Amino acid sequence: MKVAVLDINGKDTGRKVELSNSVFEIEPNNHAVYLDVKQYLANQRQGTHKSKERAEIAGSTRKIKKQKGTGTARAGSIKSGVFKGGGRMFGPRPRNYSFKLNKSLKRLARKSAFSIKAKENAIVVLEDFNFDSPKTKNFTSILSALDLQNKKSLFVLGASNKNVYLSSRNLKSSEVLTNSEISTYKIMNANQVVLLESSLEEIVTNLSK
C-alpha cells in the first residue's frame, strides 16, 4: 500500500512511500496481539507485594483457651488469621509475573498491530526532521499541524534523536521511540502512529526475519 509523505507542517510533500504488505497488510492475529500485550503489562508489575503471615506477627504463642469444653472452635495462638491483628492467611508473596514468548510470535503480534492501525487509517508517514535544541513548543507545533493535540500519538524514529525525545518528554499524550523500542502494546495504545521515513526500512527488516 502507498502512503503520502507529510512534512512537519502537515502538508503533502508530493512523495509517496510503499508500506510493505508483509508488515502492514497481513490478516491480524488477535490472539498473538493479546499475548504480547499481556506479557508487556506483566513485565511492568514489580511483584513486591507482601503481607505478614502468622509466623511474622508479633504476639504470644501461648494457647489462648483450653482445647475442649468452650463451645467454640479450638484455637492455639492469638496470631492466627481468624483473630483481629493476626497474620493474613494465604496472603500475597513476592513473585515474578514475567513469562516467555517466542520471537516469531512477538514479530507476528507487532505486524498484526501495524496492520490493524493501517486498516484504521491510523498510520502517518512523516519526513525526517530535527530540532536545533530541545523545545516542547517545537514538538507541539508538529502535533497541531497533524491534528494530534488531543490524541495519543506514537512517533517512531529511524535513529535516536536526543532533541526530539526531550522536546516530547513533557507531553503525556505523545511518546517518541526508536525502531528497537517498538512494542505491540505501544502501537495498540496509540490513536495515531507516526512513522518517520527513515524508520520504515528497519521496521520491515526487523519484522521480516
UniProtKB/TrEMBL annotation:
MF (Gene Ontology): rRNA binding; structural constituent of ribosome
InterPro entries: Ribosomal_uL4 (IPR002136), Ribosomal_uL4-like (IPR013005), Ribosomal_uL4_dom_sf (IPR023574)
UniProtKB keywords: Ribonucleoprotein, Ribosomal protein, RNA-binding, rRNA-binding
One Pfam family cited in the UniProt record for this chain: Ribosomal_L4
Keyword Transport: no
GO cellular component: ribonucleoprotein complex; ribosome
Residue ranges of the region described as Disordered: 45-77
GO BP: translation
UniProt keyword annotation of RNA-binding present: yes
Known role: One of the primary rRNA binding proteins, this protein initially binds near the 5'-end of the 23S rRNA. It is important during the early stages of 50S assembly. It makes multiple contacts with different domains of the 23S rRNA in the assembled 50S subunit and ribosome. Forms part of the polypeptide exit tunnel.
Annotated HAMAP family: Ribosomal_uL4_B (MF_01328_B)
Assembly with partners or alone: Part of the 50S ribosomal subunit.
NCBIfam families found in the cross-reference section: rplD_bact (TIGR03953)
Similarity section: Belongs to the universal ribosomal protein uL4 family.
Protein's UniProt name: Large ribosomal subunit protein uL4
Gene expressing this chain: rplD
